[in-house]
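PROTOCOL LOG
Step 1. Enter all chains and additional molecules of the complex.
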Amino acid sequence: MQPRQMLASLGMAFMLLVLIVRLVQKGRLDISYCWLWLCIGIGIVLVVARYDWLVALSRLIGAVTPTTTLFLMGILVTLMLCLQFSLVISGQRRQIKRLTQQLAILREEQGAPIAESKEPRAPC
Amino acid sequence: MAQACSKKFLVLVPCRNEQDRIGKVIDAIHHVLPAAPVVVVDDGSGDRTREQALAHGATVLSHVVNLGYGAALETGYLYAMKNRFQAVLQMDGDGQHLAEELPRLLAPLEAQEADLVIGSRHLAGEPDPSSSFIRHVGQKLFGLIVSALTRRHFSDPTSGFQGLGNRALRLFASGVFPYDYPDTDVLLMSHLAGLRITETPVHMLSRAEGKSMHTWYSACYYVFKMFLSIFVVLLNSAMWKRWRKHAA
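Step 2. Run joint prediction.
Step 3. Record the structure below.
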């Protein structure tokens, strides 16, 4: 790996790690969801520090060049991120459904009016 | 509130944007079953459905956002369980289902002959005029699939005109009920969970006005979703068997 490539990769990894830590510190990113981002940052540092590991991995999976392996890893990590988002969204959808249902039942029991905007919406 | 009324059964009416029809539906139910509490689940309507239902003497559970037909039904089941009702009769709020047919759904439940009663328009020899072509094909296909898997014939597996006994109510309120299009998959789940299912012939009307919930896009989604949902129900066979033993 060329020194410039190493510097650029380490710089990006460092910026990513600092950004994640700052977001967690400010409470804008939940600790539960930052682990994959931290893995990405650490992964970039590892690839730079032990380039021979990337070459060995390329040989292992039959990739012609390490660049191909990097692209493959990038795609896999992106897919994992998407899966994590889907899991989080699914969980939140369940929670919103249950909250809305309990709210409807509680409001009926308390006889409270529903205060909300009644702008026309498309039917089902 | 419904607690003060009979705990035997309630009539559940899920609806959305049905301000012009919901009053007539409630009046018809009160006419046929005067003592039965009517619970309308208003699934995020943008019109005056809630006010109309309240004015006609129904108990109204209002979703502040639209959750879908299955979730609206589930809200009604949760309410029925919380208030210790033994059975639920459910019908749509758009006027397609006839209140006069409710006693047909109730009879097998009261006689303890069934846990789930499905009102079938096909047993009464009627077609389904509200279905798009894709949805119609899907209904036929899934009807065949569920018949093959359960080894019994269901003439109208997509009917939303149903009566639920206590066991069905407990199963459906346990968090397994789907958000949308609860039909063939729920039927299969009920069968695997050991519910006694029966069909009774009913007449249904086509929608005279308003917009059906079944668009071309939703029909395609329905077919895809139902395949996946049936697959997941089969994957969870062990869970339904456990529920069957536990409920027994």
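Step 4. Note key features.
Residues 11 and 88 of chain A are 30 Å apart (CA to CA).
Chain A has four helices and no strands.
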